[in-house]
Design goal:
The chain is mostly helical. 60% of the residues lie in helices and 3% in strands.
Amino acid sequence: MFSLVFFGQLVLGLAGAEQFLMTGKLHLPVPALIAAGPVYRGSGFFMPILFTVSVLLVGPAWCSHLCYIGAWDDQCSRIGKIKSSHHFKPGLIWLRLVLLVLVIGVAWVMRVSGVPVFVAVWSAAVFGLGGILVMLWFSRRMGMMVHCTAFCPIGTVSNLLGRLSPWRMKISSDCCKCMKCSRVCRYNALKPQDIEAGYPGLSCTLCGDCVSSCSSSSIGYRLPFISPQTARIIFLVVVISLHTFFLGVARI
């Protein structure tokens, strides 16, 4: 719903109601531009600051709860049945780091070379369309969120920066190793070794699919000194509040 309203506002802005465009100007809804845009322009650090503060508040949940594109990848992945984890190599999550370096590098080269804004915008649009193709082809066929887990450069930043957030997803010692959580995880974050270790892998985005799948309530959100049930309520309140704030910002 958040994504639908967000893009609905964008459509209204493109149709002429400019008050619905973020900051009154067209902002391409491509997550990679959160990093590449300011590098190319040499200004406009509002989105990186908003992204950083959000990740510090809710950790890597930016990807699963707050990203306007992540919802698309989620829907594409749900069309197909999750395949065995060996079809999705864990090392692929680091492909996003390579893409992040390339995206920032290309943006910097465009800036120092004096590449026109028109060319830069179309380059960003092509990159965004490439991400949609990844969703439609790979995520749909594999039943996993391949775009978010192996393609989106901002996903890596969210996972790594999210380590500074107090939020954690923990697996208690009562876990019976039934692997139900692994079967519903679309981020490849609950492999057998992760469950054995007692916490999801680096690609976890706190989406919560595993929480509702666990019949023994052995996995859940954790905050220091707070019960899992209360921690989940606080998490949802913060995320919903950020949804509201984001939609408000998009209309300024």
